[in-house]
Amino acid sequence: MARKVVGFGENELRSLAGDRSFERGLGYVDAVSGLEVGDGSVTAVVHGTGVYEVELTLGKGTGVSGWCDCPYGQEGNFCKHCVAVGLTVLGQAAAIPRQRAAARARAAGLEGWLTALSRDELLALVREQMAGDRALRRRLQLRAATTHGDLDTVRERILALVDPRPFTRYGYIEYSDAASYARQVAEAADSLRALIVGGQATKAVGLAEQAIVALDKAYGEIDDSDGVVGQAARAVAAAHLDACRAARPEPQQLAEWLVGHVLGEENEVTEVNPLDYADVLGPAGLDRMRHLATEARRRNPNGWAEQYLVERLLKAEGDVDALVTLYAKDLLPSGITHLRIAEELDAAGREDEALAWAERGLRDTADEVHIDGRLADYVCDRYARAGRTAEAVIVRRDRFRMERSLSAYQQLRHAAQVVDCWESEREAALAILREDARKGSYGGPVLMDALLDDDDVDAAWLEAAGGADDRQWQRLADLSREARPADALAVYLRLVEQLKGSTGDRVYEHMARLLLGARDCHRVLGTLDEFAAYVSALRVELKRRRKLMTILDQHRL
Length: 557
What we know:
The chain is mostly helical and 557 residues long. It is 70% helix and 5% strand. Strands 1-2-3-4 form a four-stranded antiparallel beta sheet.
């Protein structure tokens, strides 16, 4: 019923968030407050390690999408806070249609009220709001100055918006103040765009350059863990590019500013890319940039910024040979430089040369334990296209013997299965890992991971006592609930006992998952009464941990 009303259910939330975030979201349902239902969206606040704003967009029978201003949510993920709000909505599903209707009525009422106001009444309302909202007053003043061509005021206000000093404590902008500063920087970007639209693009170019320099200089002293300042600063840089395209400044002077900025100490946050300006620079500006970049690299041949600038110019010109020469001067032991050369040659249609460079990369890095995995991927992909699958097995085998990692084991398995030689390759690979385990080296944990990844549960039980960690023991128990319920149950109960001394939502969610596994084992064994008695005793023992009791209730334990 709830899914029919709001357009989604718990399965959709789990699918969007993944099992881990969904389970963690269960523990945040009680932390949701301020739920507001609109005509197609829901907003709320979730109290976690910080106070986060969440917005869910509800489709009409087509599911849900979510946004949260926590760091994980800002990366585009459907986070645990979104899950918590979604579960809260499901819990109130019966009231959602009424709340939606009320939201539509409120919006229509507001629109009607505003429309009915006279000019004088609207002005009085705006003045009233400005008196109590400093940010609104500042925005309107800036818009008025832009409209009236008061460029001195515009300049003063834009530079004031990017000035970090009002937010600085002890020479540093703390995490708690970063979002407020970011809002001002975003406002500066909007103001620059207003200048462009208002026919003052030339003025906007100079102001944007001053703002960019100020932002890059200040950024090293800002705790921008959520990335909000960086996002706003890049909007200022984008406004500069738009202003240049509208104003068409003198190309050589623009080239000099761009090169100076990229090679200066500050280009940390705005990430200005000179080649984005190619259409503005034209041949004259690009020639000047090329000259300046070449001179800078001659003076500082090992400078990262100088190499980056020359590299970008060579790519823009399509001079592959010069780019290969540039890369070949500094071949990194990770193999990433070999890979870059191969990719550039590949893009130029020089596939044989590309593969030769990638193969050289594997030879040059053969004694390195860890290399950039994309190099081996590149070579194996090219071998597969050419039908050289047996050679791909050799590459994967060599990398496994150096790395001794689960990832390398999985890649060897995939390559060997293609040519039907996995049985022999697996036997040899496991022998290496068993020898490592016997010696007590890092291959021991990888042996358990490999056996579990192969679903070789019986072999994993034989090896577990010799060096499985708690994560591997739990994975082994999860795979053995049906076939070896007594053994799996012993693992679950041991892990629960270990967690009794720890606290926190993450610990409690983990304990609940272990108890659910233990319940499945008791169900197979036909001893659910014993499980009920165990959980009852556990609740009595840990009754002071109210959050744990809540989580156990949510899981019906």
